Amino acid sequence: MMDPWYKVISPRKEVREGRSFNPDEFAIALEQVVAGTAPKDYTDPKEFFKRTCFTRALREHSAMALRRLLGQTGNTAPVMALVTQFGGGKTHTLTTLYHMTRGGITLDELRTLSRTADEKAPHTERNWLDEFKSLPKARVAAFVGNAWDPQEGAETPWIDLARQLAGEAGIKALGKDALNTPPGTTALANVFAAANAPVVVLFDEVLNFLNRHRGFAESFHAFIQNLTVAVTGTTHGVAMISLPRSQVEMTEWDQEWQARITKVVKRVAKDLIVNDEGEIAEVVRRRLFEGIDSAGVIKSGRAVAKAYADWCFERRERIPPEWTAVDAASTESKAKDFLRRRFEACYPFHPATLSVFQRKWQTLPQYQQTRGTLAMLAQWVSWAFVEQHQRGINEPLLTLGRAPLHDPGFASVVLGQLGEPRLGPAISADIAGESSHAKALDADTKAALRDIHRRVGAAILFESSGGQADKVSHLPELRFALGEPSIETTSIDNAAIALEKKGYFIRKAGTDGFRFGFQPTLKKVVADRKASLDEDEDVRKPMRKIVLGEFQKKPVLTIHPSLVTDGEEVGDTPRLTVAIVDPDTEADDRGDVRRRLAEWTRKRGASNRVYPGSLIWCVRKPGRELRNKVEIWQAWRRVKQEIDDGTLQGEFEQADRGKVSGELTEATGGAVDEVWASYRFVFVADPAAEDGLKMVDLSAGHASAGQSLTERIVFALRSEGLLNESVGAGYLERNWPPALKESGAWPLSSLRQAFLNGALTRLLDTDGALRTKIVEFVRRGDFGLASGPKTDGTYDRLWFEQPVDAAEATFEAQVFLLTKARATALLRQPAPEMISSLAAAEAPQPGATRVAETGPTAAVPDVAGDAQPAAPARVVVRLVGNVTPEIWNRIGVKLLPRLRSSSQLRLGINFECEIEADQAPGLQFDLRQALEDLRLTESVRLVT
After folding, report:
1. In Å, how far are 272, 552, 630, 670, 728 from 634, measured between CA atoms?
2. Computed from CA positions of residues 408, 414, 416, 422, in that sequence, does the dihedral angle turn out positive or negative?
3. Taking Cα atoms as reference points, which of 501, 493, 487, 452 lies closest to residue 474?
């Protein structure tokens, strides 16, 4: 178990108190050090060197200057040019030389304070100062261009420097023309001689001086040129001049004079790169933390370093190779040891946290490498020391992911160093805002993965915002920067992918890269278009259309032609019908929706339903998922249209535009899939339920499944025992209504109704299945079939143990299914006396028994004579006119029986009605159902 860093090491007091948040706090003002007005940390040599990390570069520079001042000639230089960008440690190097040569500290004191990170124990004798017997005491003159202005006794830079080196004697040594003319090499040599000691001349902020005092430019240029030559001619003199590598917002004039001064200095100077990238960690650690060299910190740092190094090597194929490189010259053991030491050297920071500024930020023109980094990290450490302790975040190291980007002050410092304030809104939207995408994704993250999306977003920002050409944060970099023994790399990958998919300012770059910028992706445009959608035209109508369209694909059940908002819209039909409830209604198992569905199942309007068991209500699950998917789909449609029309405003990468068609396709598929996932609840009639309704959960479906939505419903109802393909004779015998057992006759209309009101099992095709089985039952002798009941208990027609046409099995009150016993008894009854001998001798009509048919006998021709009677005259009688609906039933009772007695009765229909257009689909659906039930679909057409 590794201790969290904040329990091992403590920030310095000024960091804890929040007094080191400005980059200027870490900037040494050399003129204030010389004047004694700077803070004690800078003016007191002992305090200054306590906080100074003698990096390799600083040790080399200081040693070269000390050798020169002591009169040595090997490995030294009279003129040294310090070359870095802003914040690269130039002024700190100048201040170091100032304090070492002023006599304010002894060699022994300096040796103790300047021990470096590679000196493993305080008692070691090895020290970079061991070559010196004493520190030289020199006369030091400092020129700071941003602070210098002409004044009495210092009218020119060379007069000011001469006074600092040798007082009035130095000014006199310049000669009488010093007020107007820069001194030559001889005059400067005289000044050095007047100092009567080794001399050190320090120059800082030269370009700032030239910009402010352009009238001095030519003369100062001549002075610098002569000074470098004069110092070269001495044996105990050093000139150290800082030359920034680049400046922010340089004018052409600045660039010209920067080049001219640099050329003069470098003609005789030795270039020195002040900052050492490999030792920046030590600079930061000593400036921000107390007790870096304490035994407890060293012990914890080693334990953490070993754990992380082992983790990295176990997954080295998934992290950047430069951290775990093993080649012919380095065994795996040595490579692991090297990585372990890098973790130790950076503790309590993760190496990636510090190295990102050297790897990716150092080429930014406005980035202050030392003071800028220190200011950012100071504020970061101050916040993390309190916040992580309070929240119980037990991270052993400070990683890029924990950067407090939500803090306005810290974010301001970061954006200032990046030189890109436009990133502020993007950071708030995607990474660190109260309503950021990362925070939404992190809502359910816990333990080691807590805030993983926010951490990944912060790391992407730091890794992809540098000044290098390839502004990309690659997955291997993210894994190394955020990985730890309790986190797997796949979790980091998944978080990055999820954040990119949801974010507005994070882009995919290549196969494994991500880039963060201020320009929004098209997802942001889509979100804006989504917010502007019209609720009815752009959301509800497309949502209803796509829902109905998915249900109508390859249906195996009848689909009600429109989405249902009122149960009265759905007809009372004997055919199983799926009624899709409008998506504005959400399913519930005990609430108002269920009560409403139960009422719709029992009644259609004010009338009780005859076939409640034929209804299958399909209702979507609660939530906004379907609506959201439809909104996204419609938003992408708008974006695609705007791009095609050339009306889309804003700057977007070409790669984004190229993805629009694919994104639209994906959004369309997402809306379709969500129909399958959302419409998962089915309600059907169930007499056993308290409210007469049973809910079936279809579970989440997917459009790519091999079955249609209606097939899913059929499968689920079968699984619940609520639907069957057919029935057997035994099932009907067991469920024969008690009230009909004595008569042994079950009307087919009542039989069908029993299968559709919940009394008997629900059949997939009730009419088709029953017709098929009745024909089979009659042929086998399981049941009989009869039609046309008579008052004496017999029937006009009876079928039993013989083939019967399926058309005879009509679901009417005058057609009966007979028990086997009843059918057998009818067959044994004697024929009625009214049947004539001739009629009795006639063969029975096809498909009918000999005892079933009674009625008028046919006329018998006179076979004795050859003459045939003349055919009676025939006339056509037609009834023409309009009748009101009130007497339709009376026509069937009064007129049709009389017309039926004619030999060639032909009936036609011509029904015509006028209704509202939006009600037409429902009526047409009901009429088609009725025509199918009457088997009239081939003879009667529905015309609209």
Report:
1. 62, 21, 6, 11, 51
2. negative
3. 493
Structure tokens at 165: 């080196």
Q: Tell me which amino acid residue 99 is.
A: H
Structure-token pair, residue 292? 């870096």
pLDDT score, position 886: 58
Q: Which of 568, 557, 574 is nearest to 601 (CA)?
A: 568
Q: Which residue is associated with the tokens 């009989």?
A: 784
- Residue 698 pLDDT greater than 50, yes or no: yes
CB 85 within 8 A of CB 144: no
Going from the C-alpha of 476 to that of each of 360, 390, 934, the distances in angstroms are 15, 31, 72
For the chain, the distance separating the N- and C-terminal CA atoms, rounded to the nearest angstrom, is 80
CA-CA distances (angstroms) from residue 47 to 122, 332, 415? 18, 42, 32
Cα dihedral 183/189/195/201 (nearest 10): 70
- Pairing outcome for strands 10-11 and 681-685: unpaired
Q: What span, in angstroms and rounded, lies between the C-alpha atoms of 271 and 632?
A: 59
Residue 934 pLDDT greater than 60, yes or no: yes
The kind and range of the H/E element at 748 are: helix 748-756
Contact 478, 465 (CB under 8 A): no
Measured distance CA(386)–CA(604) in Å, rounded: 67
Three-class SS of 406-464: CCHHHHHHHHHHHCCCCHHHHHHHHHHCCCCHHHHHHHHCCHHHCCHHHHHHHHHHHHH
Q: How many CB atoms lie within 10 A of CB 693?
A: 21
Which are the contacts of 417, defined by CB distance < 8 A and separation ≥ 6?
A: 361, 364, 366, 367, 368, 372, 373, 376
Mean pLDDT for the chain overall: 85
Residue 367 phi, psi dihedral angles, 5° rounding: -75, 125
Residue position matching structure tokens 């009419």: 767
Residue 434 has pLDDT above 90, yes or no: yes
Q: What's the Cα-to-Cα distance from 629 to each of 142, 667, 906, rounded to whole Å?
A: 69, 7, 57
Distance, CA of 367 to CA of 87 (rounded, Å):
7
**Which residue shows structure tokens 């040494």?**
28
Helix or strand run (H / E) with residue 211: helix 206-212
Distance between CA atoms of residues 89 and 276, nearest Å: 10
Q: Which two tokens stand for residue 365?
A: 């023109």
User: Rounded CA gap, 39 and 58, in Å?
Assistant: 22
How many angstroms separate the CA atoms of 748 and 799, rounded? 14
Q: How many CB atoms lie within 10 A of CB 443?
A: 7
> Are 573 and 587 spatial neighbours (Cβ–Cβ below 8 Å)?
no
Q: Are residues 499 and 438 in contact, defined by beta-carbon separation less than 8 angstroms?
A: yes
**Strands 815-819 and 783-789: what pairing?**
antiparallel
Nearest to 722 by CA among 751, 682, 770, 750: 682
Rounded CA gap, 94 and 53, in Å? 14
Which value, to the nearest 10 degrees, does the dihedral of the CA atoms of residues 408, 414, 416, 421 take? Answer: -70
Q: What percent of the chain has pLDDT over 70?
A: 85
User: What are the strands of the beta sheet with 615-619, ordered from one edge?
Assistant: 558-559, 577-580, 615-619, 681-685, 693-697
Query: What is the per-residue DSSP string for 337-388?
Result: HHHHHHHHHHTTB-HHHHHHIIIIITT-TT--TTHHHHHHHHHHHHHHHHHH
Q: Do the strands 270-272 and 237-244 form a parallel or antiparallel pair, or are they unpaired? A: unpaired
pLDDT tens-digit series, residues 875-918: 666 777 777 765 665 676 566 666 666 666 777 778 888 888 77
Q: How far is CA 135 from CA 111, 131, 239, in A?
A: 11, 11, 17
Could you give the C-alpha distances from 275 to 48, 60, 368, 370, 752, in angstroms and in order? Answer: 18, 11, 12, 8, 94
Distances (CA, A) of 837 to 572, 857, 858: 50, 10, 12
Report DSSP letters for 769-818, one per residue.
HHHHHHHHHHHHTSEEEEEEE-TTS-EEEEE-SS---GGG---STTEEEE
